[in-house]
Amino acid sequence: MQNLIRRAFAAASFALVCAALPVSAQETVRIRGTIERIEGPVFVVKTRDGAEVKLSLTDNPLFVAIVKSTLADIKPGMFVGSTGMTQADGSQRAIEVHIFPESMRGTGEGHYDWDLKPQSKMTNANVEKTVAGVDGQMLSVKYKGGEKKILVTPDTAIVTYVTGDRSDLKPGTKIFVAAKKQSDGTLQAPRITYGKDGLTPPM
């Protein structure tokens, strides 16, 4: 079972690179939404802006579940990703932090624009140290070519990844997908990341 999980996350790491790295809008679109219904192999998804899109999956797709985690689970030496807003001192105020399994270390490494909110940034990096402060926990993180300080507050969503299953995907499931637009206007993706037990993927 451990080998199976390890292989699944090794494959997922490649897929997540495609989802996390900055990409051309013509090539890939990020979909955040809720499964409205399932029509055979097609997922009908209502996006966060109210649009309805049809999503199909490539052969041998990956299903990755997002589950809740806690600040106490973040330790120096871990590889994490965080969507944040830049503060006046240059640090990032974290909207969310996702803890990568060790097999996904290096996924989407760097600091770049993100589209969760206007002006938001994604930082995927190694945790060097954590320091408690008045407003929350400050993470000092380092990535190839730079480093950042990330403020994790009580309002920050903290999650991690576990191996998912197709059977979890039902109407009402919240998903995050990086998909390619097809010639007929539908979307296709190699992977669905979804919230387990009603959770909304915060990325």
Question: What layout of secondary structure does this protein have?
Answer:
Blueprint: H1 2-20, E1 29-39, E2 42-47, E3 52-68, E4 79-86, E5 92-99, E6 110-113, E7 121-132, E8 137-143, E9 146-152, E10 157-163, E11 174-181, E12 187-195
Describe this structure in words.
- It is a single chain.
- By secondary structure, this protein is mainly beta.
- The protein folds into 2 domains: 2-66 and 163-198, Beta Barrel (OB fold (Dihydrolipoamide Acetyltransferase, E2P)), CATH 2.40.50.320; 68-159, no CATH class.
- The protein is 9% helix and 51% strand.
- The chain contains 1 helix and 12 strands, in the order αββββββββββββ.
- The protein has one helix at residues 2-20, and strands spanning 29-39, 42-47, 52-68, 79-86, 92-99, 110-113, 121-132, 137-143, 146-152, 157-163, 174-181, 187-195.
- Strands 1, 2, 3, 4, 5, 6, 7, 8, 9, 10, 11 and 12 form a 12-stranded mixed sheet that branches.
- A hairpin with a 7-residue loop joins strand 6 and strand 7 (121-132).
- It is elongated.
- The two termini are 28 Å apart.
Question: What attributes characterize this protein structure?
Answer:
12 strands; 2 domains; mainly beta; about 200 residues
Number of strands: 12
CATH superfamily of the largest domain: Copper binding periplasmic protein CusF
Considering DSSP H and I runs of 4 or more, what fraction of the residues is helical?
A: under 10%
Helix count?
Answer: 1
What is the H/E order?
HEEEEEEEEEEEE
Mean pLDDT over all positions: 88
**N-end to C-end Cα span:** 28 Å
CATH fold-type name of the largest domain: OB fold (Dihydrolipoamide Acetyltransferase, E2P)
Strand portion, in percent?
over 45%
Number of domains: 2
* Poorly predicted parts: 1-26
Name the overall outline: elongated
CATH architecture of the largest domain: Beta Barrel
Largest sheet, if any?
12 strands, mixed
The radius of gyration is 17 Å
- Estimated structural class: mainly beta
Q: Which CATH C-level class of the largest domain is it?
A: Mainly Beta
